[in-house]
């Protein structure tokens, strides 16, 4: 049975107004159009709905019995087709899933959770680490917001570059080159790479090659914390985003210190990705706003070099 839900709207107007003319004015339709709809309603229900009593129309017992139900159905349909854009943070009960690498999580989690708890105590956040392979987690709703250095090449994924971080060289605090590290010495050190896929090269090697230098990559590890721990206990060095890694170094007391890179390296973008289904979701938009505010505050006044190429992303979290 195929139902025209517009008939519910017409029936509701007829029962409220008690006449075809009144219902037509309420619905901004012509009286003949409402009369035709009333005829269809009578045929579907097997009831007259409204009957003439002198100069007025009187609802039948059936019409009186379903009046409140019809009105409720029309209100529910209106709520479904025109969802409220009001967001009551005090009563919001929701769990959001964010995915980012460990340095970003360490820098982001504490201030973001504090901002959420202050205004939306019913909101919980699930932080997931990056996986070794690309997934469809954003597309299938398993991840609400992904933060990294690149954007998935999918037309339904929305992307926003929140800011940029600067690459620095991190080495042991009592490393022989802890005070100063030139290009020759930098290239000569054993290097670690942070790579979720285990890659043993990145665009830093291209920059070194342009200067006639090569480096020896000792190992690739899946997390920044692991790389910093190794660096703190060896002569190896690692090139990482400065601001994002600063809380991790402080939190774990890893005995390492950053130095400016001895060659010009492009800045690392901080990119937020989400599925287009959440574009008009007020709760998700609120989460994006809070995440943007926290990341902007963490990055502070750090500005990328104007001469750096925006297309190169060495040591980014999606390698």
UniProtKB/TrEMBL annotation:
Region (Disordered), start-end ranges: 300-319
UniProt biased composition (Low complexity): 304-319
Pfam family, one: HTH_1
Keyword field: DNA-binding, Transcription, Transcription regulation
Keyword DNA-binding: yes
Family label: Belongs to the LysR transcriptional regulatory family.
Protein name: LysR family transcriptional regulator
């Amino acid at each position: 049975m195929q139902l025209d839900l517009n008939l519910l709207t017409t029936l509701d107007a007829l029962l409220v107004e008690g006449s075809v003319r009144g219902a037509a004015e309420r619905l901004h339709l012509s009286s003949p159009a409402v009369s035709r709809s009333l005829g269809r309603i009578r045929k579907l229900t097997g009831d007259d709905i409204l009957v003439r009593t002198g100069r007025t129309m009187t609802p039948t017992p059936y019409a009186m019995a379903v009046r409140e139900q019809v009105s409720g159905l029309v209100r529910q349909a209106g709520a479904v087709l025109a969802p409220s854009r009001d967001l009551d943070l005090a009563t919001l009960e929701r769990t959001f899933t964010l995915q980012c690498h460990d340095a970003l999580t360490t820098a982001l989690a504490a201030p973001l959770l504090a901002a959420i708890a202050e205004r939306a105590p019913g909101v919980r956040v699930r932080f997931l680490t990056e996986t070794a392979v690309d997934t469809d987690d954003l597309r299938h709703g398993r991840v609400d917001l992904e933060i990294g250095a690149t954007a998935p090449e999918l037309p339904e994924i929305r992307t926003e570059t929140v800011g940029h971080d600067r690459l620095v060289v991190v080495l042991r605090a009592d490393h022989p080159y802890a005070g100063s590290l030139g290009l020759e010495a930098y290239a000569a050190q054993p290097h670690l790479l942070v790579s979720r896929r285990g890659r043993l090269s990145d665009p830093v090697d291209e920059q070194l090659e342009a200067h006639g230098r090569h480096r020896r990559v000792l190992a690739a590890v899946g997390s920044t914390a692991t790389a910093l721990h190794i660096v703190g206990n060896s002569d190896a060095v690692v090139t990482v985003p400065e601001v994002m890694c600063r809380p991790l170094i402080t939190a774990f007391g890893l005995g390492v210190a950053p130095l400016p890179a001895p060659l010009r390296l492009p800045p690392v973008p901080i990119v937020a990705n989400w599925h287009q289904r959440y574009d008009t979701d007020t709760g998700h938009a609120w989460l994006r706003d809070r995440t943007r505010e926290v990341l902007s505050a963490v990055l502070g006044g750090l500005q990328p070099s104007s001469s750096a190429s925006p297309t190169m992303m060495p040591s980014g979290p999606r390698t």
